[in-house]
């Protein structure tokens, strides 16, 4: 079994319409509405991440990488 490194994204879901692709995301600051509430109240907003995984090879793609 191949280990897939997603750096903290633990739940991968099948991508609709494909038998080879899966997606996963972390919602560090919640959804867009929650992020707006945090922003308006002066709290920092952590970036959300999205990964795409192609199986069976387990290649991980992160289309928009966040900067730390």
SSE inventory with pairings:
Elements: E1 13-14, E2 21-26, H1 32-40, E3 49-54, E4 59-61
Fraction of residues in β-strands: 25-35%
Q: Poorly predicted ranges (pLDDT <50, ≥5 residues)?
A: none
Label the structural class: alpha+beta
Determine the mean pLDDT. 88
Order of helices and strands: EEHEE
What order do the strands of the largest sheet run in, or round the barrel if closed? 1-2-3-4
Termini Cα gap: 31 Å
Count of individual beta strands: 4
User: What characterizes the major β-sheet?
Assistant: 4 strands, antiparallel
Please tell me about this protein's structure:
The chain has 68 residues and is of the alpha+beta class. The protein has one domain (13-61). It contains one helix and four strands; from the N terminus they run ββαββ. It has one helix at residues 32-40; strands at residues 13-14, 21-26, 49-54, 59-61. The chain has a four-stranded antiparallel β-sheet with strand order 1-2-3-4, with no helix packed on it. A hairpin with a 4-residue loop joins β3 (49-54) and β4 (59-61). It is elongated and about 45 Å long. The termini are far apart. The mean pLDDT is 88.
Sum up the structure in keywords.
4 strands, 68 residues, 1 helix, alpha+beta, four-stranded antiparallel beta sheet
Task: Kindly summarize this structure in a few lines.
This protein has 68 residues and is of the alpha+beta class.
């Amino acid at each position: 079994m191949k280990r897939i490194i997603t750096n903290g994204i633990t739940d991968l879901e099948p991508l609709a319409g494909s038998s080879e692709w899966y997606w996963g995301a972390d919602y560090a600051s919640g959804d867009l509405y929650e992020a707006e509430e945090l922003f308006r109240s002066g709290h920092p907003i952590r970036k959300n991440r999205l990964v795409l995984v192609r199986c069976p090879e387990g290649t991980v793609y992160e289309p928009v990488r966040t900067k730390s």
